[in-house]
Structures are given as C-alpha cells and as structure tokens.
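The protein record minuted underneath.
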Amino acid sequence: MTVDQGGAPADAPLSLPAKLRQLAAERPDDIGLRFIALDGSEPAFSYAELNRRSSQLAAALAERGVVSGDVVALGLRNSPQLVLAALATWKLGATPVPVRWDVPDWELERVKEAINGRVFLGAADLGWIDETENAPVPDLPDQVSPRVQGICSSGSTGNPKIIVMERPAVYREVVTTPFIAAWGVTVPRPETILVPAPMYHANGFAPLQHLFAGDQLVVLEKFDAARVVDVIERYRVSTFTATPTMLQRIAALPDIDDRDLTSIQWIIQGAALMPRTLMHRWIGLIGPEKIVSIYGMTEALGLTALRGDEWLEHQGSVGRGLGDTEMRVLGPDGEVLPLGEIGDIYLRSATSPAYTYVGDAPRLPSTPDGFASAGDLGYLDADGYLYLVDRRVDMIVTGGANVFPAEVEAAIIDHPGVSDVVVVGLRDESWGRRVHAIIAPTDAAAPPTTEEIRTFTRSRLAAYKVPKTVEVVDAIPRSEATKVNRGALVKARGG
C-alpha cells in the first residue's frame, strides 16, 4: 500500500483543504475565483492566492476561538471575503453555514441564535478579513470537518431551520462531475461556472465544491440579467444554475437573440417550476440538449431531473428519479395514489447524505420505510415522470376547489403586459379564499387592467382558477435568490 507525504493511504479521500493545497501547488497561477462587483471592479484570485489567504484567515479565526467541530456563521453577501471565509472554516475542521443577510434584524438575530456558531461574520467584519492578508502565513495541520456545510431555510414565520449535511468535508469527484454527464455528455474541463445567485442559498453555495475540482468560479455580487449575459460573453461561461425568475429576466432582454451564448455547454434550472413558455424560449436560445431541470430540496432527500429534449416529450415534468432516487405520491392516509392523481411527493435515496437540523424545526414527514416529503404536491405519469404542481402550504382552497398558485402564475406571466407575478389566496367571505394576482407591469405607465388579466387567464385556465382580484405593484418583493415570501404578502393584505 502506498502512502502520501502526510502518512495517509494514497487512495484515501483528500480533505477539502488538502485538495486546495494540491491545486495551489500544481496550478498556482490559474484563476480559481473571479468576482463581478457592483462597482465595476472584477478582482481575480489564483489558486495559490486562495490557499494563502484562506490560511491567513483561518489563523485569525482560530484566535477568535474556532476549533474543529465548531460552526462558523457567514452572514456575508457574495464576495471574495465570503469564499475565503468558507475555505478558512474548512481549514480549521469547522462547518461553514452561510446566512441570509437580506432579512430584518430581528429575523437575523433569531437565526444567529439558532445556529449558535462560535463566530458570526457579517458586513462589519469585511475590513477585519481584508486585514488578515498582512498576517504571516501559518503552517496549518490538515483537518476534516465532520459536517461539510449547513444551509439556512426560514421564512418570516415558523422556527428557523438550519440544515446540516452529515458528511465529512472531503473531496468527492462525484460531487463535482458536471451534472449533464448523467446523459452521457462529456464537457470540456475545467469549466467556467457562473454563480448568479446569493451564496446563502444551496444552489449558490454548492459551486464552491467545484472550486476544488479546478473549475473557475465567476461570482456575481448581485444578480442582474444584463450583467449575466455580458459576463457569459466576456468570460466564456460554460454553465450556471438559475431560477425561473432569473431565466425569465434574461430572456426578456431586448437584444438577447443577438447575444453570443455559444460558450454555454449546459445549464441547470431549479428552485421552482419552470413555466412551459419559458422553457420553450430557452430551448430556442441554447437548444434542448443543454437544459437540465431538477427537483430536489436542501435536505437532499433525493433528486429528479430531465433534459430539455426529454421535457419536450413530457412537457411540465421535473423528471424521473436520478441515480437511486425513488418516488411515491401518497394520499392523506399514506396510501399510494394512482398515476395522474395529485398527492404528496415522497422521495428516498440511500446514497444521499444524511441531514440534521440545528434549532427547533421539526423533521420532515416520513414513512416507516424511509421515504420523506418536503411538502410538495404532484403526480406521476405512466412513464415514471414526476409533475410538480405546487407546495401544499401555498394551495388555495376557493369555493371548495383547490387552486395551485404556480399554475395560475404560469398562465399570467405570458401576458405581454406582465413582467412578474405572484398569486396568493386572500380571505374572502363568499369564497373562503379568493385567488388574488399581484403583478408587476412591463410598462408602469400602462399596466394591464384587472379585466384584461382575467380575460387572458380565462382563455388558459378553468373559470374557478381565474383571479378574482388583481393588484398592480411597481415590483414583486423578492429575495436576492428571487424567492417570494407568500405568507408575508398575505399578511400584509389582511390574511
């Protein structure tokens, strides 16, 4: 048996810090991170710089008491400092937990209390992080965090939920293999990966694993559709992950059909249901074989996926189980429902990492044989493809009938006078709940009328799904990750 210089078996998995040191030695001058700041600057960091700077910051964090097994909360917006802090945390054998910073102070304090991390790094620590560059470069022992990362998931109501992945922070090639490889596609490596989403979100933090594979990350400080396309062209971006809202805004750019998107090898669409017209638009922009739609959750219960050419044969689907993921659609008494009947989606995967919650959030409902549900509703077709309709908590019961906001939103967004829409259920004496559409107009000076929206929607949906009321706003309040808090919207309108 051969051993490496540290005395470990040569075929033993490398810790994430050891993998970074290896890259710094083998490719010291290659750019690993490029940051696209709002002020127009675009600082770049080589693998040697990332290794050195994260070691300096790790020593500074150790002076603040961080030891192996601790949690470090990272309340930083997308920035080089956030990436360095995550790398430094792993170098100490601790667990990084990115934290939403775009929430009210009271909610941030509640999340911080739930995490109970050894250190919280926020905007006030940016200068301190930068100052560590002047410190000596320490010789750190190789350490492996027992828990690779945590992700926060909480709204304005309910208990904060911090989801921690119970697997060690070691380099796993399978995690960094391009997702499109599941369809037998080989893409050039290293990839240039655009990160348009906030890194407090699972889809934004996950690309850090690709840094250890030698891929280059191009991180946006904040999502902007025009800037995304500019960066794709200038840095020949090969892949990115985006929400439907992001893709909608990119596709709506007036010159998008004339822009150069040929560097894109593949993209992932996730986080929400993709409207059919938007999928067709992107198929026209880059081709169906380059689009992958996925359905999963931060708890990593399992994953479904399909490529754009499959989607054309199963329009509206979020795919079949990937790898060993199994699916069930269950009724209210836990019974397996017939094909085509809407019920609660349950997933099971033996190879998915176990998760735990930090805080008081209850675990997801599960079956005795290991299937679990994140609260989404959907159905299966005869070919085993899953169709997601909406979250159970968002379903509107109006006049005794069930209405799924995502379906109504998908119908309304095609109106040429609508740039964004959210549908909620509001208290109503006659209907129990009425379907209420909140729209942001394409032209603020000439927004569509309620009757225009109702007539347009009536041509696409059953009458009971048509919004009873329509509200025009300047902009839909979305988080940096483009998500909406429906509960807050309903509360602000009287419940």
